[in-house]
Amino acid sequence: MLSLLQARRSIRRYTQQRPDQDVIDTLKEAVLRSPSSRGLNPWEFVFVDQPDLLAQLASAKPHGSAFLQQAALGVVVCGDERQTDVWVEDCSIASIILQLAAHAIGLGTCWIQIRNRTHNDTTSAEQYVQRLLHLPEYLRVESIISIGYPDEQKEPHPTSSLEYGKIHLNQY
Ligand SMILES: Cc1cc2nc3c(=O)[nH]c(=O)nc-3n(C[C@H](O)[C@H](O)[C@H](O)COP(=O)(O)O)c2cc1C
């Protein structure tokens, strides 16, 4: 597990290779094994593999989402706000679990923030995604995780860059 965390980086360039069905199945199992508050599992995951839909999702924000167009898969992570007031936490945990599971099997991923981001002057990124995917308003959109086989190599963050000063013993 630690070696996975040591090597993990955000990957935004992907090859043309499509993941096999067993790879997709592994990712589905991983997200569904995420912990959630009170075990409510308030989430819904939209696995998007249609290139035209990925291209439209890539325009969800003016910055920081364009690379989704090249990805083999985008997983839209949504939470049902009617079920819990901590859907943000639950969806964030599911998002990172998905990223780590994908990295563990040789895929590259990047988190695309949707919640609290804007599409344009009149529409939030969340509304844009909700309309595109026919999501009801109560299904809030936290993130899109872009996934594909890496077409870029990134060095791990060196141990010397870790901010150990942010860790405190017993009191701040
Ligand atoms: C909550 C969150 C939101 C993020 N949103 C975006 C995003 O919208 N677009 C993007 O390209 N990267 C996004 N990232 C990736 C970060 O930019 C990246 O994790 C950070 O720069 C550290 O780089 P690393 O993941 O390679 O260690 C996000 C990461 C997190 C945790």
Secondary-structure class: alpha+beta
Average pLDDT: 98
Q: What is the C-alpha radius of gyration, as a whole number of Å?
A: 17 Å
Characterize the largest beta sheet: strand count, sense, and whether it forms a barrel: 4 strands, antiparallel
Strand content: 15-25%
| CATH architectural grouping | 3-Layer(aba) Sandwich
* Secondary structure tally, helices: 5
CATH class: Alpha Beta
- In N-to-C order, the SSE pattern is HHEHEHEHE
Unreliable parts: none
Domain Nitroreductase: 6-59, 63-149
Cofactor: FMN
GO molecular function, one term: oxidoreductase activity
Family: Belongs to the nitroreductase family.
Q: What distinguishing features does this structure have?
A:
4 strands; globular; 30% helix; NADH Oxidase; alpha+beta; four-stranded antiparallel sheet; 172 residues; binds flavin mononucleotide; single chain
What does this structure look like?
By secondary structure, this protein is an alpha+beta fold. The protein has one domain: NADH Oxidase. The chain is built from 5 helices and 4 strands, in the order H-H-E-H-E-H-E-H-E. It has helices at about 1-5, 20-30, 50-55, 85-105, 125-135; strands at about 45-50, 75-80, 110-115, 140-150. It has a 4-stranded antiparallel beta sheet with strand order 1-2-4-3, sandwiched between helices. The longest helix has 18 residues, at about 85-105. This is NAD(P)H-dependent dehydrogenase/reductase. Its cofactor is FMN. Keywords: Flavoprotein, FMN, Oxidoreductase. One of its GO terms (molecular function) is oxidoreductase activity.
